[in-house]
């Protein structure tokens, strides 16, 4: 196949302040033995010691022949990397995802690039046992071959493979793997819309709720998005999922790492523009650079915090490894200028420092299309739900145009505080 990717209300609404990585500490660890990007990352334990694992990816050449089946592990106690046996895939892959269930790692999907530029999505499930440092017999094949999917674990028992790319385009499939039974089942698909069907998104299951964010949708140049989707899992029948759009972020995001703590999800790095495996933008604008940020979404208050100011930028991430209650590791990926890296970062979170204080909230009121604020506002933008800019509102006469109707997104910026809310206009 051709490489297609180469071609509400009048009420008080609340916004919250952006923060500069509040509560987060980044520490550089021992570098990987090999520079690698778009590698699947997960964690496991060996004799009670946390390890970080990296599977597959692409090397510094950033061309088809640089796609590798090499695998590595990091011992969190000895703080050293070593190389383990290659993943037993039929073909070398990028854009796989790895998930840990009951201390076994399941590497699912990914895609291979041929010398003529064509691609093929994988249906393989590779099973790695950290305690034995060996691969087991492959799992049952993925019903719909997949790559660049969102992949998350529910209750240390089921792996949800959500949307992603399958050979010729994004799909709405939700495929659920049961490692204990080695079986696949069909989950309620995401709606057959570009707002839901994406590749390069990432997510987390908080309790019984799936959150997945960003990614590249179908259409011209595969635009990256800022949409957060929510899927509520029925715990009686986990194949039944109720899908909806949650509150959008203020920034686009593509191929970031996602982790969860408390009532919040955090998206580390990524980029604001979608790109091919060599780091070149699909829209033809040239090389893409990473975001220096950790974005936070508080599911309890349904609030985004745009965490700019990270000391390091990283993109092309396909997972994060948890090594402690408030400690995670990212490794590999791309730095500025699309440089494939072997750097390893420990991300530690201080929940006390990271707590959001009540004085970080500002309020505004919408009455009959007029916006009323309790402080100076710098910018007001109105978007359609598909991301089209409908109006740049005059901050001195903040009225939403009478011609605009239906469900829209209103983004308000005040100093460093940014909030996007949904309203329905008659």
Structure explained in plain terms:
The protein is mainly β and 426 residues long. It folds into two domains: 330 residues, Neuraminidase, CATH 2.120.10.80; 68 residues, Immunoglobulin-like (Sandwich), CATH 2.60.40. Helices cover 0% and strands 44% of the residues. Strands 2-31-30-29 form a four-stranded antiparallel β-sheet, with no helix packed on it. It has a four-stranded antiparallel β-sheet with strand order 3-4-5-6, with no helix packed on it. A hairpin with a 2-residue loop joins strand 36 and strand 37. About 4% of the residues have low confidence.
Give a topology summary.
Layout: E1 12-16, E2 24-28, E3 40-46, E4 49-58, E5 67-75, E6 80-84, E7 97-101, E8 104-108, E9 111-113, E10 119-121, E11 125-129, E12 134-136, E13 150-154, E14 158-162, E15 165-166, E16 169-170, E17 174-178, E18 183-187, E19 198-199, E20 202-206, E21 209-213, E22 216-217, E23 228-233, E24 241-245, E25 257-261, E26 264-268, E27 294-298, E28 303-305, E29 321-324, E30 327-331, E31 344-349, E32 361-367, E33 370-373, E34 379-384, E35 389-393, E36 406-414, E37 417-425
Antiparallel strand pairs: 1-32, 2-31, 3-4, 4-5, 5-6, 7-8, 8-11, 9-10, 11-12, 13-14, 14-17, 15-16, 17-18, 19-22, 20-21, 21-23, 23-24, 25-26, 26-27, 27-28, 29-30, 30-31, 32-33, 34-35, 34-36, 36-37
